[in-house]
Amino acid sequence: MATMADVARSAGVSVATVSHVLNGTRPVLPHTRQAVLDAVEELGYTTNTLARSLVTARTRSIGLAVSAISNPYFTEILQGVEAAALAAGYSLLIADPHDDPGHERKVVQLLHERRVDGMIVAPSADPRDLLAYLERHDVPAVFLDRLVDEPEADCGPRFDQVCADNAEPMSRLVTHLAGLGHRRIGLVAGRPGLSTTSERITGYRSGLAFAGLAYDERLLVHGDSESTGAEQATEALLSLGVPPTALVTGNNAMTIGVLRALSAHGLSVPGDIALCCFDDFAWADLFSPRLTAIAQPGRDIGARAVGVLLERLAEPDRAARTVRLPCTFVHRTSCGCTSPSEEGTPS
What is the DSSP string of 10-23? Predict the structure, then answer.
């Protein structure tokens, strides 16, 4: 197996220069850098990650804690994280906290014990133990999708956070349905305690107000961010004396449950009830009718979270920040429009 000394002899440089090229620790002249890389390729040299971590106290690994198995949306985020981490020369250790606060705390500790350089976490609805652990051990961390740390009046957040806009896009769905003549618009919201849930409820209410519609608490039900809960929540809406004529769902998993409940009642979309959803599907365009949706930039959120974490590792003392990325309004036909004219417009 080739060693760093072998690479240095082949390239005609010192071992220190080879180290600087491979680790990016000091600028090297372009022709020298290329000679080193050519020697690495020719000799098939691979770095000894374990040995390097003992010297630098860095493993060039990132821990990712997201419920990718139970929430398909996080699969797209995971792809963005993985691509960005690989491009930066980092490996990825993944754990699924199952949106359970107790398990969340355990998997984060497990990742920390594997000596990851930093973590990217999609927090649960009750992240108190998680936050306490990260603060106690001073773990560099970025929260994605869900906020845990709203900025205070006189200072910013304690942790870096990356997420999508939530309130304004949800408001847009509601005002769109109101513009089509709907006066009773129901919301199947996500799990209480999640920032995404509260922000989308805020958007729902602001959309109603903008359209001049009164808020009716009976039209807001919680589907707990999953299909079965959304199906039961939709049943509650349909049992009202005056049920809604339009529905908005808080995420893609709940959209499936809503469609299942509507089908069980023999209701067609949009003939009997209009439907819009927060979260687009890769296959939403194949539904009949095609689903009008808010598309979140999942891969961009994942990639941006990696970038923010690497900035944190490079500058541990810089101020924490919250980064929000825009969503896209994808106008199809489930809302009742027969000829969508706003396909793919930013929200």
Answer: HHTS-HHHHHHHHH
pLDDT tens by residue, 234-243: 999 999 999 9
Residue the block writes with tokens 């009750």: 126
Distance, in Å, from the CA atom of 294 to the CA atom of 332, rounded to the nearest integer, reads 11
Q: How many CB atoms lie within 10 A of CB 218?
A: 14
Distance CA 93, CA 339 (A): 45
What type of residue sits at position 60? R
d(Cα 248, Cα 172) in Å, to the nearest integer?
Answer: 11
pLDDT exceeding 90 applies to what percent of the chain? Answer: 69
**Tokens read off for 89:** 């020369």
Give the separation between CA 247 and CA 90, rounded to whole angstroms: 43
The whole-chain average pLDDT of the chain stands at: 89
DSSP letter, residue 153: T
Q: 299, 336 in Cβ contact below 8 A?
A: no
Hey, which residues does 207 pair with through a beta bridge?
Answer: none
For the stretch 213-257, pLDDT in tens is 999 999 999 999 999 999 999 999 999 999 999 999 999 999 999
Beta bridge partners of 121: 65, 143
Contact (CB, 8 A) for 160 and 309: yes
Phi first, then psi: give them for residue 250, nearest 5 degrees: -85, -15
> Taking the C-alpha atoms of 332, 333, 336 and 342 in order, what is their torsion angle to the nearest 10 degrees?
20
- Find the distance separating the first CA and the last CA of the chain, reported in whole Å: 54
Distance separating alpha carbons of residues 123 and 146, to the nearest angstrom: 6
Task: Please give the helix or strand (H or E) that residue 104 lies within, else none.
Answer: helix 101-113
